[in-house]
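ok trying again, last paste got cut off:
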Amino acid sequence: ENRHELKNGDILSIALSPSLRAREIFEKIRTNDQKSTGISELADLSRDPTFAIQFISLNEGKGVQSLMSMIEKSVPSNTPTDKGDLANILGGFQELMEHSIVSWDTIGENFVKKIINILDRSRSKDYFHPPIVHRCLDILESIVMNSTQYYCIVAHEVPPSSVIGFISKGSQFVTHYALALINALILKAQDQPSILHELSINNFSTTINDNILQQARGEVDHDIAHQLSIYQSFILNQVENRMRTSFADGQPRMEESLRLLPVQAFSEEYRNKGANAPIHEHHWKQLGFSQTNPRLDFQETPPGVLALDCMVYLARTKHEIYTRLLFAQMDNPCPFAQTSIALTKILCQLFRIGEQTGDIGYFQEFIPFLILNEEPFKEIFCITIQLLFKTWREMRAGIMDLEKVTAVVTKQITMVLQSQDTSTLTSSEVLKSRLFELNYKKIIAAEEQSQLLDEAVLKSRPVQDLRIRITPEIYELVKQERLHHLIQGAAFPKIGGRRRDQFFYCRLAPNHKIIHFGDTAGQTAPPLETLENKVQISDTKLVTGTECPHAERARKNINLIFSLIYNGDEHLDFCAPTETVYNIWVDGLNALLGRRMTSKAAEEDLETLLNMDLKLRLLDLENITIPTQQPPIPPEPNSYNFYYKLD
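nice, full thing came through this time. structure:
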């Protein structure tokens, strides 16, 4: 199958052909005396794709159906041999199906119900056998993800809440596959909020804390942590609808939430007034809204009214913090409403709210604090809004510095959430402490250190040699970019024209040999064939500035003019509308004439692309010291008669 991949020097081991092994194992599992041996060998070899093809094709393409029949006919047994055989059959079946040769829609309703029956029976202490249970959970998860026909049976017979009990069985494999099945059922469900609510009622977070976090003591198994990060994304994404909803005037609940902000902040003034008493306009301003009508601040989505929800949650559940932030704002103006809206948007981006939840966790590690909370998004908002106000004070920021402050806060949050020990973030106090440790001075110091390291690496001898080697390639890239602009063309004003709206259009032919030009009514690019005049690039000479024939007539724009002189005394005069257009055309024409591009813009583009390319090439060498000198070449061996000794 893969003999074309063999290379000289590859080590081969002699083994039975896959087709022969498949027939041999198939015959063993059909006999009583060698059945256990055959099943064990099947479990080991079924991962191999070539063997899988051969085994599945046996018995007129019914190799997998033979295993399914054995599973359906299995009976409850407590003997270790029978338990081991059933676990191996389930494992062999699952591994064969993983090759996607046989469709999950062909397995049949009876088989699905048999797997569910085996799983239900395993809830009993007498019949619980971890290899059997984790294989059943794995098979059911595959059915949910890959079968449109039998997904409904699993969803009806095995609700996520019924799987929670397997997490407390003390087996990491069982815990991993139980979480994977729960995540699959949530992902495929039409009504995710209902399932998440059901899990909450059944104390799913408590089960995770007691049986995973407490038992692991900070070092959660990688596969389990991956599944927890997927579950984390589900519970965070429950705020997506609010994030995509704008404030609707006259909507009672939204109006009530908005009114609560000044009422909670200035409670003394509204205590003895009716529920419908008007809010003073200056109170909206003190709360930090950008407009006199605060409803307009919640029109942008994201974050929509999710920002309002977070602000109200802070005012209701953490009133002391809410009023303290507002009081701090009076001392050093930090607009609470505007910063809250900006922060909510940042959190939506960091946690990728609204993106399709797939099989990839949103961070390298899950964050226990988020999983163990009923309102994870709002809780993390309450912590990070305090961080934002703290950073605001440290930066001595003003209202015009909001963007700078949010950029620093984004970096602070990102550094904590993407650190290697996020599994220790088990409470709001721990998370707050970690965030507050990264003050503004540390962020600045980290950025300066990073720049110094980058500069040191980029200036090292090996990197400089690499830079010299790749410079022609990058230079060519900059050159092609300039020529692309010339092919698109540009409109230039006529020098000495009586009217200011007189233009001519100039374009480079796709073959890079001819310049086409002609009058145009506006600045829209005309088709190349409509430009009647043309000149061969090889017959031209480029001059700029005071050397141009029209220098006297364009004294005000002397730095933006250039000319193409051809046929001895004829010339095409240009006056670029901007410095950018001037640099592009002069660089492009110089490149066509075989001269070096001399503009500052070309040098900056070359430098930027060179540094970017170097950093991309050096990514794999992160945290590895680059030697200053070339490693010595070892001496040649005495002979080239090498041989391999196989154990």
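cool. The radius of gyration is 35 Å. Confidence is low (pLDDT under 50) at residues 359-364.
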